[in-house]
Design goal:
The structure holds 2 protein chains of 2 kinds. By secondary structure, chain A is of the alpha+beta class. Chain A contains 15 helices and 16 strands. The chains are: A alpha+beta, B alpha/beta.
């Protein structure tokens, strides 16, 4: 048995597709999907004689991301070629940034189990995406043929490289969730891991607790969700621990996460690693960024998640936890703001969003943008409840209906005849009827058995098919019973 | 020279689809067709008339200089001290770019494909059969120069040499309006004569390559005949100063018949 305790060291490389309208070096659309090889032109196909021209919007989005991640923006940077042969790469080189990236030296704050921690952002750089291959068999080496789709070729990407500052899978997950939230807030990426607009590789190593020297690392690829990122890191940490426990050595290599088997498998060793032969792309000129333009972009940055969260706590009185969930994505935060602007009860609105809305979204695997319940409709529903038109229980039933159909709450309420009976005259008649029909309960109540009251309220609710206002019923019933004595 | 000016008027200008193209206004080049070089200062780089240059070529160059002086220009010897490093620097930079530029001919999308059992051998067979010797030589040279561990010693060093070469020209242009050199060190050799000697082939570019490295304009004009073949002289100018070159070229054209050799008409070609 070894007594050595190990510390996990994790660094992440995150790729995000930028949601510019056109590609990074040509005018083809960046739109996801589309019939194969329809979003292509001679430039992104790398035909002989064509030249790239940088899309200025890509530079603007990269600068915006850099500023949101507290980076310095380089006044002078350049594009380099990363050379390698693969059928999804038409020019056989990827235009990327090597030693002079557009953004450097940033940081971002994460929170795990209530503890805050700062993670360094080494750099953010721009590059072009590659195409997609559809293999006839399981992989390129075992297929009779592979088909190439170049629609994605030349879609702009930013790569965000972290310092090796994370110490657990939870921290890594908190980091990528934070990156996702920030990129969504500043509106530069769709950040959908499942669609591949957000991708992540993890560098993982272990070292004895107290050591400051980094251990040998492995790079893990092919993690397609936050959950698989966390699971892959947990698996890899255990794998490395087991090797070190048995006094083995970690091989520096790239490993792939196998989601089905729940393991990482070796892809290629350091010896087999590519020599990318980076060199400055002679077809492009260096990028010179004026400080005034950077200031303009900085001034136009929207409120970031952290600031928005604090505002909900300070100004609207939400708990830090609730504010964290509401501001988790920009879409939810905006939805919340719009409901509150029409129905100014922030805590009630927050509870409805966190309870009902997010529950149904998760259960149906939907994004808030796909949701049929608009902020206007939710505000209207909450007003019906506040006015006493419907009970809380009814409101939830109406909400389920709204979520399924997208209908107006008012229409659902009248269609189902769900209007609550609060009118004293109408209620008194029913109360009298129930008292007459239940002499034993009346006797029990008068003997001091409070339970009997509840039974009679239940009978009234049954009689009115749940439409009676329970508060009003209880009050009237008590008055009547007490008057009998 | 008039033809040249007309063509320049047509093809010059900013190309928004070429990032390396300069957004500079195009003058009317025919306005530079002036038969007058009085007071112009013309430098003759000594590195371009010494060792390795055919004496018959240098003789014509001296003849051109004498003519220009007769017409009122001042011709002086000047030094571009880094000239000897231009050729090696060029063949590293150009080969490196070439290795990357030609990588797209991989048999996947267009052109020759030599079918094979797997993707890697399809790539290598296609490229082995599709390219000729000189192209392969440059791809290998360029791949080597960019390889991890060699980049600093070759490619980066060559880029630094390139900067020195450009500085040589910048300094010369502080004193001179343009420079006069041979276009090639020898007159044209026979077809196929040196193809088995790549180094000799590379050497024939020695006078023109520094211009490409420095990114400046040059004009080549025919000037006299040796062994029934035309000799070329080169005028080199500052960036965006093509007009000066046209003016000097035009003046030579107007004042000597040496700029109009017509070997084909006379049937003198061997």
């Amino acid at each position: 048995m070894s007594a050595v305790k190990y510390e996990t060291v994790i660094g992440l490389e995150v790729h995000a597709e930028l949601k510019t309208l056109t590609k990074i070096f040509c005018s083809c659309p960046t739109e996801f999907g589309g019939e194969e090889n329809t979003h292509i032109c001679p430039v992104c196909l790398g035909l002989p004689g064509v030249l790239p021209v940088l899309n200025k919007k890509v530079l603007e989005f990269a600068v915006r991301a850099g500023l949101a991640l507290n980076c310095e923006i380089a006044g002078f940077s350049k594009f380099d070629r990363k050379n390698y042969f693969y059928p999804d790469l038409p020019k056989a080189y990827q235009i990327s940034q090597y030693d002079l990236p557009i953004c450097k030296g940033g940081r971002l704050e994460i929170e795990t189990n209530g503890e805050k921690k700062t993670i360094g952002v080494t750099r953010v750089h721009m590059e072009e995406d590659a195409g997609k291959l559809l293999h006839g068999g399981a992989s390129i080496t075992t297929s009779q043929y592979s088909l190439a789709d170049y629609n994605r070729t030349g879609v702009p990407l930013i790569e965000i490289v972290s310092e090796p500052d994370m110490r657990s899978a939870e921290e890594a997950r908190a980091y990528i969730e934070k990156i996702k939230a920030i990129l969504e807030y500043i509106d530069v990426s769709d950040v959908k891991m499942e669609q591949g607009s957000l991708r992540c590789d993890a560098n993982i190593s272990l070292r004895p607790v107290g050591s400051t020297k980094l251990g040998t690392k492995t790079e893990i690829k092919n993690m397609n969700s936050f959950r698989s990122l966390q699971k892959a890191i947990e698996y890899e940490v255990t794998r490395q621990e087991d090797i070190l426990e048995e006094r083995g050595t970690i091989v520096q290599e790239t490993r792939s996460w196998d989601e089905e088997k729940g393991v990482t498998v070796s892809m290629r060793s350091k010896e087999a690693a590519h020599d990318y032969r980076y060199f400055p792309d002679p077809d492009l000129v260096p990028i010179v960024v004026e400080p005034a333009w950077v200031d303009e972009i900085r001034a136009a940055l929207p409120e970031l998640p952290e600031a928005r969260r604090q505002r909900l706590v300070d100004e609207l009185g939400l708990s830090l936890y609730d504010a964290g969930i509401i501001t988790g994505t920009r879409a939810i935060a905006e939805f919340f703001d719009r409901v509150v602007s029409q129905y100014n009860e922030p805590k009630i609105v927050a509870n409805w969003i966190m309870g009902e809305l997010l529950r149904l979204l998760n259960a149906n695997n939907l994004e808030i943008s796909d949701c049929k319940v608009t902020p206007d409709k939710l505000a209207a529903l909450l007003k019906y409840q506040a006015e006493g038109t419907i009970s809380g229980k009814m409101a939830k039933a109406v909400f389920d209906e709204m979520f399924a159909t997208g209908n107006e709450p008012g229409a659902i309420i009248s269609e189902k005849g769900m209007v609550q009976i609060s009118d004293e005259g109408a209620l008194l008649a029913i109360v009298g009827k129930i008292i007459a029909a239940n002499p034993q309960s009346v006797a029990d109540y008068r003997a001091g058995k409070e339970k009997a009251l509840g039974f009679m309220v239940g009978q009234i609710m049954k009689e009115t098919k749940g439409q009676a206002n329970p508060g009003a019923v209880t009050k009237l019933l008590k008055e009547k019973l007490d008057a009998l004595s | 020279m008039t033809d040249c000016a007309l063509i320049m008027n047509t093809i010059f200008g900013y190309d928004p689809k070429d990032s390396t193209s300069a957004p500079v206004d195009v003058p009317d080049f025919t306005a530079s067709l002036i038969n007058d070089v009085k007071g112009m200062r013309i430098g003759i780089p000594k590195e371009y008339i010494g060792e390795g240059i055919d004496p018959q070529v240098s003789a014509y160059l001296r003849q051109a200089a004498t003519k220009l002086e007769e017409l009122g220009a001042v011709c002086e010897e000047v030094s571009l001290p880094h000239t000897e490093y231009a050729l090696p620097a060029y063949y590293i930079i150009a080969s490196a770019e070439c290795s990357s530029n030609l990588a797209r001919y991989d048999g996947v999308r267009y052109g020759l494909r030599v079918e094979s059992d797997d993707i890697i051998s399809m790539f290598s067979k296609t490229r082995s059969q599709g390219f000729g010797d000189e192209v392969k030589r440059r791809i290998m040279l360029g791949t080597y120069a960019l390889s991890s561990g060699y980049y600093d010693a070759y490619y980066l060093k060559a880029l630094k040499v390139r900067t020195l070469i450009k500085k040589d020209f910048d300094q010369a242009f502080e004193k001179y309006d343009c420079l006069l050199t041979p276009t090639a060190p020898t007159v044209a050799f026979n077809f196929g004569e040196k193809t088995n000697d790549p180094l000799a082939m590379y050497m024939s570019d020695v006078c023109t390559i520094p211009i490409n490295l420095a990114g400046i304009p040059a004009l080549s004009i025919p000037f006299g005949m040796v062994n029934h073949r035309p000799v070329g002289l080169q005028l080199i100018g500052k960036a965006f100063n093509e007009g000066t070159l046209l003016r000097v070229g035009y003046t030579l054209e107007q004042n000597t018949r040496l700029t109009r050799p017509r070997p084909f008409e006379r049937g003198e070609l061997a």
